[in-house]
Amino acid sequence: MSRSYITTPIYYVNDKPHIGHAYTSLAADVLARWKRLEGHEVFFLMGTDEHGQKVEKAAQDAGLDPQAFTDKVSQSFRELATVMGFSNDDFIRTTEPRHKAACQALWTELAKRDEIYLGHYEGWYAVRDEAFYGLDELTERDGVKYAPSGAPVAWVKEPSYFFRLGKWLPELLRRYDLPAGHPERIDIAPESRRNEVIAFIKQGIKDFGADSPKLDLSISRTSFTWGVKVPGDEAHVMYVWLDALTNYITAAGYPDANAERWKFWPADIHFVGKDIVRFHTIYWPAFLLAAGIPAAKRVFAHGWWTNEGQKISKSLGNVIDPLALVEEYGLDPVRYFLLREVPFGQDGDFSRAALARRLNGELADALGNLANRTLSLIQRNCEGKLPAVAEVAEADAALFAGLNALVGEVAGQLNAQGFHLALEAVMAAVRDANGYITVQAPWALKKTDLVRMNAVLRHLHTAIRAYATVLQPFMPGTMAALLDQLAVPEDQRGFAALATPLPEGTALPPPAPLFRKIEVA
Ligand code: MSP
């Protein structure tokens, strides 16, 4: 059986969940659900990143000890997963014993292979990003230096362990360039991000020369204690990104090669936001390769949302709360909108007007009405019983042309993380079906040609069943309701089952509206 290991970033617990958290996980959830429907054995992981100075500081500000603080905030991310309908198979917290054990095992392995050495670190550090920056990357305002991300930096000087990152950079470049399908290839998407990463590494090598210790990475800190202790030198805690990235193998059972889940490693895809690409495509595979562990196959970086045209920030007070959105519009419309509105991989804008346009136009008018009109006619004109499978006449050809290719087309888009294109493909089919129902006018056929009326309604039922089936990963609850209305048994909702028509005479329950329209201000 094919397997898929799909991950989201683990979220910092310094604050409550916002739209960015919901977004990355939603994309991963849709892919996980799709792969399950394809019959894959899926392991879908989500979790929280609970160590580091940033979380330690947030706990202090909240007047709580870090463990109590992370227990509390981590819970709000679990709730987000429940409310958003995420189908994760595990939820990892970096404060769990299994994770500390994995980090220490990875460290010990790296040390054993002479990939780590003790030195001294001096440099500019941004707590908010948990990252070091070079002086040339900084800007200065009112005597404070800022990283390109806008986070303030401070000069840090302390003893530190280093990872020999430099020596792995040429190997990373080689792997990014291997042909698709090569087992050692590290795939970075979209293309623009891949180019960025490659340019960044090449610049580093050009500035310092491959193998230069200047390219090595500081991976421990002594100035705070909220982290995983370095084995054998407890004055140090591990750099939070080494700790955090390791979660992906912890959950797969590392260091136990006999763990049931180890078969899932290497991960098929890490979903990340564009701000954390470097960590996932440079540091992470370098740590793994240095420890003799295969690197994840693919990293996909999505863009960032703005809110009604404005950058989202706490100081502007325009943070979008996913729970409030779901409360107001319902879960599936929100899931649909987030993946439909913006090409996955690009930045995009969240606006109420756009939301209303998509939900009213595509869900309520196009899909909802198509289903409701068809099912009401079957209810009224066919005594609620499914008409027999009918021959595909010339007038029906267009409806079926798109339909037969639909699953393959959506699969192709999703394998490339083209979520918006996948939805566009389904919506194009739905629009065709609406054209078909208008032209065929089955309501008028009742008086003129009952045989044809039955055929048209049966064809529409077949088409709507296919749309509902492929849309399940995007809108699980609503599509389950639609499949109920279509009388598709629960064990026949996978893609393979589309080849087996429901028997003639199957009783359909009375239809009910699937989507409600939103008032536009
Ligand atoms: N803890 C690290 C990840 C470690 S993974 C081993 C982290 N956490 S985070 O809580 O800051 O999470 C962020 C995720 O939310 C990132 O993928 C980031 O890109 C995403 N977003 C944060 N703000 C966002 C928007 N405004 N829009 C879309 N996604 C955004 O980074």
List keywords for this structure.
521 residues, alpha/beta, Rossmann fold, Isoleucyl-tRNA Synthetase, Domain 1, 2 domains, six-stranded parallel beta sheet, four-stranded antiparallel beta sheet, 17 helices, binds 5'-O-[(L-methionyl)-sulphamoyl]adenosine
Model description:
The chain has 521 residues and is an alpha/beta fold. The chain has two domains: 300 residues, HUPs (Rossmann fold); 148 residues, Isoleucyl-tRNA Synthetase, Domain 1. It is 46% helix and 17% strand. The strands form five sheets. It has a six-stranded parallel β-sheet, sandwiched between helices. The chain has a four-stranded antiparallel β-sheet with strand order 5-4-8-10, with helices on one face. Strands 11-13-12 form a three-stranded antiparallel β-sheet. A hairpin with a 4-residue loop joins strand 4 and strand 5. Helix 11 crosses helix 14, helix 14 packs antiparallel against helix 16 and helix 15 runs antiparallel to helix 16. Bound molecules: 5'-O-[(L-methionyl)-sulphamoyl]adenosine. 5'-O-[(L-methionyl)-sulphamoyl]adenosine binds next to strand 1, helix 1, helix 7 and strand 14.
Q: Mind telling me which CATH architecture of the largest domain this is?
A: 3-Layer(aba) Sandwich
Tally of helical runs: 17
Based on DSSP secondary structure assignment, what is the total number of beta strands? Answer: 18
Weakly predicted, low-confidence segments: none
Would you tell me the structural class of the helices and strands? Answer: alpha/beta
Bound molecules: 5'-O-[(L-methionyl)-sulphamoyl]adenosine
Helicity level: 40-55%
